[in-house]
Design a protein that fits this description.
Helices cover 22% and strands 20% of the residues. The chain is α+β, with helices and mostly antiparallel strands.
Length: 92
């Protein structure tokens, strides 16, 4: 992956460039849960949405510039709207 990123001019992950110290995940998977309380006892977390951009899009003095990038969590209503379109995908 690094070879590919360097070949295309040193592309970098937009979220990591804008939030170098942030701890954020786009997918959370419960590996095990307390049977009585149903609370997670073990979780797996990962980022599955890397968006690679050229460095000028994340540095000052360039136009256009990526200014904001945030993770969102779909609401129950968002998920219902997707289901109503006929989607059977587990993750959206």
């Amino acid at each position: 992956m690094n070879t590919c990123l360097m070949h295309w001019g040193g592309l970098r992950d937009a979220f990591r460039a804008l939030h170098p110290g942030a701890v954020a995940y786009t997918r959370r998977n419960v590996i095990s849960a307390n049977q009585a309380t149903r609370k997670p006892t073990s979780l797996s977390r990962s980022r599955i949405d890397r968006i690679y951009v050229s460095p000028p899009l994340t540095t000052n003095g360039s136009a256009p510039k990526l200014r904001l990038l945030v993770h969102i969590t779909p609401t129950d209503m968002d998920l219902l709207a997707v289901r109503r379109t006929g989607s059977t995908r587990l993750y959206i």
